[in-house]
Amino acid sequence: MQTVLFHETIFGPIHSRRLGTSLGVNLTPDDGKICSFDCLYCEAGFNAQGPGTTGFAPRAEVARMLEEKLRGMKERGEKLDVITFSGNGEPTLHPDFPAVAGDVMALRDRFYPEAKVSVLTNSTRLADPAVAEALKRVDNNILKLDSAIDSTIRVLDRPNAPGFTADKVIGQLSQFAGTGIIQTMMLRGEWEGHTVDNTTPEEVAALVEAYRAISPREIMLYSIDRPTPARMLEKIPPEELAEIGRRIEAETGIPVQVN
User: Where are the domains of the chain?
Assistant: First the structure.
């Protein structure tokens, strides 16, 4: 079974196709996965692998390890474009996420003031005011919206919360109008007898309406890049993805980055 990718709290730097040279911050366990989604395409595997034994990384340890890493990189003259909250699950589930985000931004200011701080979030914790305010303070608040249709979200993202709906999350995402970045994974395939395809005209039209309602500063469209736990998924060809991106940009007036 495909399992977690990251076995450290601070990992990299790695090259991100969307963000550049990125130093990762994994707040979730380094030997298991904790997430409020169980996406078919998650590079860290399914939640069924369990939460592991190490738990959420303590706030003080995150700060200590990040300071040590940044100091060493600075002394060696290494380049850094971004510090990215990512890892083996949803970072905003960390009980001290707002404080940790503040620590990370302070350390960035001290060692690499030109670098950005990014958070990759699945948008499930936006109803928490402290989490939402922390996301508003980072440079790149990258929020997931893979579909604007409930039935597709249920199959593709498999949210843990029974009450999670497209309308609800779109309403919550609108608080980041002009500042948030919406990230959408485009794919098609099969899972347990269900067809999943968020590239159909119906799906794209629903996404266009959602993007208009949210009014983010940018949209990121991407497709599968690494092995996925659900094997019957198909990467969208670059030319098709680019065409979808052109349509969305033309119909919303919002810049679309395609990777």
Answer: 1-120, 145-259
When pLDDT is averaged across residues 146-158 and rounded to a whole number, the result is: 96
Cβ–Cβ under 8 Å, residues 131 and 176: no
Interval 212-255: pLDDT, tens: 999 999 999 999 988 899 989 999 999 999 999 999 999 999 99
Architecture of domain 145-259: 2-Layer Sandwich (3.30)
What span, in angstroms and rounded, lies between the C-alpha atoms of 134 and 167? 23
Contact (CB, 8 A) for 89 and 34: yes
By C-alpha distance, which of 207, 222, 119 is closest to 170?
207
- Collapsing DSSP to helix, strand or coil, 62 comes out as helix
The per-residue b/e assignment along 185-220, b for 16 or more CB within 10 angstroms, e otherwise, is: bbbbbbeeeeebbbbeeebbebbbebbeebbbeebb
Task: With residue 93 as reference, give the H or E element that holds it.
Answer: none
Spatial distance between the Cα atoms of 22 and 26, rounded to a whole number of angstroms = 12
Nearest-angstrom CA–CA distance, 41 and 21: 23
Using a cut of 0.90, tell me whether the model's pTM lies above it.
yes
1 within 8 A of 16, measured Cβ to Cβ: no
Helices (runs of H) and strands (runs of E) counted in the chain: 7, 11
